[in-house]
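Bug report (template v2)

What were you trying to do?
Predict the complex of my protein with NDP.

What happened?
Run completed; filing so the output is reviewed.

Input:
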Amino acid sequence: MSTPEHVNCLIIGSGPSGFTAAIYAARADMKPVLYQGQQPGGQLMETTEVDNFPGYAEGVNGPQMMMDLEAQAKRFETDVRSGWVTKVDFSGELKKAWVGEGENAVEIHANTIIISTGASAKWLGLENEIRLRDIGGGVSACAVCDGFFYKGQDVVIVGAGDSACEEASYLAKLCKKVTMFVRRDQMRASKAMQNRVKAIENIEIMYDTETVDILGSDGVEGVRLRNRVSGEESEINVTGFFVAIGHTPNTGMLKGWVDLDEQGYIVQSSPGTTHTNVEGVFWAGDCGDKVYKQAVTAAGSGCMAALDAERYLAEKGVH
Ligand code: NDP
């Protein structure tokens, strides 16, 4: 068996949080090694236009932004590698991680680890939903990112949690009408959030309602829906289809090693920092943030994680 590689700062994940952590860690001479994970570039690789990341006056497309971030991290000699971490062991002072599966997995020992594995939006799984999402044809899981493109238009949003309510209220300020599909006869969202959407005039809430299909070949033209009680099907004309049915944080491999909340998000051991319950292990981005979930907030926490890791190393006297 070969001797495990020893690195100073291991960054797991390559979204805006991972690359920002890498930029800061590299400039602090922490010689970061970044593993890109199963979806190099993260959720922004599924986005078309990004108009809300500061600094891009004309907007930028998601994949281009991730290439820019990667190039910036490499400019300061971040060691960017393909491969994903499948297992960790945080029982000792040196943190252990395995890249790859089974016998071929490569063991790495790290003084510090920054976890920036992100979260994945949940989708309904309908064929036309995925097809139109992939061609940038009017299907989105982020109202804050894409709502602007539907100014003055009619849209549907699916979901009944706090996120769906928040996104419906956001869309209502831009769109002519927002129709909210709630699959049960009640919402899951907090009463305060429910009251907020119920008070907005241009939001129509349809209970017991599920999506049968999304209509349109190059862009959303309408939605076919079914009332789950009567079984009756009908169609409405809309140009945007938003899905807000939750996210899954990519933290499965951390179970048992890092404190996670009931939904799998990493718990901040000290509020306002990126510390986890394990010394030397830090979180950044959507794997520890279920509220803001923006590229710019992910980048911000990536910066914080690198600074927290740098301070940790300085306190330990590791250079
Ligand atoms: P939640 O898991 O809370 O809600 C998901 C919603 O989507 C549920 O209403 C669920 O319906 C519905 N849903 C799931 N699958 C489907 C499906 N296939 N078809 C139709 N509907 C479906 O996720 P959120 O993202 O809303 O929230 C995640 C966490 O973040 C929560 O703890 C929330 O409180 C928190 N949050 C807090 C905010 C704040 O404080 N400002 C803002 C946003 C989120 P059903 O109810 O029938 O299961």
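What did the reviewer find?
The mean pLDDT is 95. Residues 5-120+247-316 form a domain with the FAD/NAD(P)-binding domain fold (CATH 3.50.50.60).
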